[in-house]
Amino acid sequence: MRMRAPFHTPATARALTLAIAMALAVSAPAAASPGHPEIRSALPDATLSGQARLRVWGFEVYDAALWVAPGFQAGDYTRHGFALTLHYLRDLDSPAIARRSIEEMRRVGSFDEAQATRWLAQLQTLIPDVKKGDRITGVSLPGGQVSFLLNGQATGTLRDPAFARLFFGIWLSPQTSEPRLRASLLTQATP
Fold this sequence. Notes:
Layout: H1 10-27, H2 37-42, E1 47-56, E2 59-68, E3 82-88, H3 94-108, H4 113-126, E4 135-141, E5 145-150, E6 153-159, H5 161-172, H6 179-185
Antiparallel strand pairs: 1-2, 2-3, 3-4, 4-5, 5-6
Helix pairs in contact: 3-4, 3-5
């Protein structure tokens, strides 16, 4: 009777393969450059900080990914370049996205009704209706410049430091309504 070494069993081989794959995944640095050309163009040295899926009342809404430029600090996110990508898992119309954005921005900080009205109109222009599979990317540059893209195509740019702080605060501020999503996005960011 021939005996096999324990490392030659199918279960051990699968475990070894899984361990090697996990070791490679853990030891691999965050992606050296973003996977979307629009992010590479705006932030060529950006790296992936984190990813998360937003679920609301059991419904999957989008997968989010945060790409940050070197030196990014979560506590002062508006002073650094970064890009937030939302890959939608369901259809949503522009007015609904804009209204919800304004509601969430109010959690982050205060602003008057004139600003709310202006930002609501701008958001409806900058963020069109989305279909399942669409990707919205917001690129924030120091100084309050925010550019929006739908599936890599520019939809517009807005230069407003208050808007940039409050809008991206929906995901990055400690006052977010989704603290676990925030923590996942900021996994690799400096506190």
